[in-house]
Every structure is written in structure tokens, then in C-alpha cells.
């Protein structure tokens, strides 16, 4: 794998965070200083990643099609201490704050253009779904990347269970809202709750995965417990955490980041090394836990499974397909 030296344009991730939408240049520079300080924290910090959840009950089979992500998997203590979860703060070390989220008794509501609306407990949902392990690459729009062994089930199985009407064209996902628990939600300038969406064809694609565990364990809160999405060919912000509602609709959902800054974060957000973010290059990515910059892959390397979903779309939507 070629290793690329950090070029001059490579902004630190603190500057690349979507939050810098709100910062003027002076504040941005101050933020870059803070980012450097955080990166220099002693290694011992990595041990504190919150309580250890129970192991996923055996048997847990790894899907052979997704057993090897082509790059070494990111160490659990690295992936679990560097997270985007703005409900708990607009920085990466939210693993402590996220422990305040109560996930016992969690339910997901499935509504909109379906034969029958229902609300189901995550435990009952998991019991009804074909759970397996898949090792997926994750590529954040901020140009960092990871390889994570998720536990979950195909979103297509949930779509089947929901029995959507033929008029349903999109799925709209919504995260919990509780500013008493998630202090980030007191930042009133964000359009809470976090919302994301996919087309029904994207949802039916085998890659779309509903995640309920990671690293062979029940999902840690900071990863978006008790249930989140993983769409490995799209920028990470599409992979919404701690889902409470899934609505089938004929209207394209407007996502959290799209509502904040549609020029930078669109609906499609497919990974592409050749289409830069307006404020930084997407040509390379830093693997978490390393200083290596590796080349970004088109569709994050999953083009064979998903490229056909976007045939002709670029002609209609231009580079929106890639942001
Ligand atoms: N509800 C919610 N989901 C979210 C986010 C968030 O802030 N809130 N951040 C997104 C972003 S930007 C990324 S890169 C991934 C990060 O997932 P990870 O922390 O499990 O690596 O979660 C995504 N899902
Ligand atoms: Mo992200």
C-alpha cells in the first residue's frame, strides 16, 4: 500500500470538522491549536473508553464476503476514543459524555409509507434479524478513516419487515432527542434531532448495514448504541447513530449537515478522491491510530457493489453526488 507524506494542504482534522462552518478565521486558528494539544495527550487516555459492554452472545459468524477490509483493523481503544457524535459535543472525545445515554428499553418506530406503522424494542428487532459480523472501512468527510468489525444485520431485512408501499422512495432516519442527557443538543443553532436519509434502492443494497455491536461486543454508546447505520461507501456522516425512528417517504429527506451547509454536505455524499470538499482535499485519508496517509478510494473501495446505483446521476446532479 503506498504511503503518502502529509502534504501542505492537509488541514488538521480539527479544522476540517463541519463545525468550523461557524468559526471565523481567528477562531479557526485557535481551534487548530487545540487540536494539536488533544493529539498530544498521553497514551493512557486511550484506556478510558467507558464501561466494557458484554460480549455478543455466541454464535456470531463473520460474513466471509466482509471478513477482510484490505487494511488492518483499527484498534478498539482507538476507534472508541475518537468519535463524531455531536449530541455529546463537537469534539472527538465524547466517549465519557455518551455514557449518559440510557439504551435499555430502547425502541425504534417504523412509520410513513408502510402497510402498518409499528414500534419495536431493539432486543425484539435483533431477535428477528439475521445478525452477523462484517469488517467495514469507514471514511469520515474530515479525511480520517478506520476499519471496524461491526455486528449487525442488513438494512434490507428491516425494509422487508416494514412492508413499504410502492410510493415509498426514501428512508428517513432520526436520532433521539434529549438535551438533558445529550448536552450538545443545547447548542440551539444545530437543527436537532440528527436526521439522515437514503433511497429505497440504497437501503436494499446488501452493503447497507444496521449496526448493533462492534469488536464482538454489544455496541458501545459512543458508537451510536443501541442501533446505528453503516453505509461504508458514503462519508461517515450518513451513518446515523442511536436511531429512534425510520420513516418511509416519497420526499427526499434533508439531513442534519445538509440543512446546516448544503454546499458542503449533500444528500448523496459518496466517497470520491477526485472531488474535493470546498475547504480541503479528499485525495488522501489518515488511518486512525497512525500517521499514515493512504489514497482515498472511489466509493471507499465498494464501487463494485454500489456504483450502478448512481448511473446517470452525475449528469443530473453534478458533483452533488460526491459531497
Ligand atoms: N446521531 C449522530 N450520528 C452520527 C454523527 C453525529 O454527530 N450524530 N456523526 C457522524 C459522523 S460525521 C461520523 S464520521 C460517524 C462516526 O462514527 P464512529 O464515531 O462510530 O466512528 O458517525 C456519524 N453519525
Ligand atoms: Mo464524519
Total domain units: 1
CATH architecture: Alpha-Beta Complex
Instruction: Label the overall shape.
Output: globular
Flag low-confidence runs.
1-10, 19-46
- Strand coverage percent: 15-25%
Biggest beta-sheet profile: 7 strands, mixed
Helix content: 10-25%
| CATH-defined topology | Sulfite Oxidase, Chain A, domain 2
CATH class: Alpha Beta
Bound molecules: ligand MTE, molybdenum atom
Number of helices: 9
Tally of DSSP β-strands: 12
Instruction: Return the structural class.
Output: alpha+beta
User: What's the order of the H and E elements?
Assistant: HHHEEHEEHEEHEEEEHEEHH
Instruction: Quote the distance from N terminus to C terminus.
Output: 26 Å
Mean pLDDT: 90
Briefly say what this structure is.
The chain has 323 residues and is an alpha+beta fold. The protein has one domain (14-317): Oxidoreductase, molybdopterin-binding domain (Sulfite Oxidase, Chain A, domain 2, Alpha-Beta Complex), CATH 3.90.420. It has helices at residues 13-16, 25-39, 76-79, 122-128, 155-162, 200-204, 256-260, 303-306, 313-317; strands spanning 107-112, 118-121, 132-139, 144-154, 170-175, 195-199, 209-214, 217-218, 228-230, 243-249, 284-287, 293-295.
Describe this structure in words.
It is a single chain. This protein is an alpha+beta fold. It has a single domain, classed as Sulfite Oxidase, Chain A, domain 2. Helix content is 18%, strand content 20%. The protein contains 9 helices and 12 strands. The chain has helices spanning 13-16, 25-39, 76-79, 122-128, 155-162, 200-204, 256-260, 303-306, 313-317, and strands at 107-112, 118-121, 132-139, 144-154, 170-175, 195-199, 209-214, 217-218, 228-230, 243-249, 284-287, 293-295. Strands 3, 4, 7, 8, 9, 11 and 12 form a 7-stranded mixed sheet that branches. A hairpin with a 2-residue loop joins strand 7 (209-214) and strand 8 (217-218). The longest helix is centred in the first third of the chain and has 15 residues, at 25-39. The chain is globular and about 45 Å long. Mean pLDDT is 90; it is low at 1-10 and 19-46. The structure holds ligand MTE and molybdenum atom. Molybdenum atom (MO) is lined by residues 84, 140-142, 236-237. The site of molybdenum atom has 6 residues, from loops.
